Amino acid sequence: MPEVPTAHEQGLNDFNCDGWNAFFFPKGTPEPIVRRLSAAISEISDMPVVRERLESLGLNVPGRDRRTPEYLQRLVLSDLEKWAAPVKASGAAEE
């Protein structure tokens, strides 16, 4: 859509709208299980065949320090705070 101005062209300087994927577990999942699954997913993400496939889909595999439950919690809270006002201003509503 070359006719649509970019966010920067519309005056939205420092605009960052990264997408990301994560695994979420049900609330109350015991911490040892979360840790074990997180470690397994991280190990799989480092496998060359998996990394190559993800990258072929246009995804970036983050570094290990960004694949922890603590990092994900900070990311989710940060994005909720970041996007709360724009979502509210858009008039979007839960149905």
Describe the structure.
- This protein has 95 residues and is an all-alpha fold.
- Helices cover 48% and strands 0% of the residues.
- The protein has three helices and no strands.
- The radius of gyration is 17 Å and the shape is extended.
Topology:
Blueprint: H1 31-45, H2 48-56, H3 69-90
Computed CA radius of gyration, to the nearest angstrom? 17 Å
Elements, N to C (H/E): HHH
Return residue spans where pLDDT drops below 50 for at least 5 consecutive residues: none
Strand content: under 5%
Number of helices: 3
The largest β sheet comes out as: none
Count of β-strands: 0
Proportion of helical residues: 40-55%
Distance between the termini: 30 Å
Q: What form results from the Cα inertia axes?
A: extended
Briefly summarize what is shown.
It is built from 3 helices and no strands. By secondary structure, it is mostly helical.
Features:
95 residues; mainly alpha; 3 helices; 48% helix; 0% strand; extended
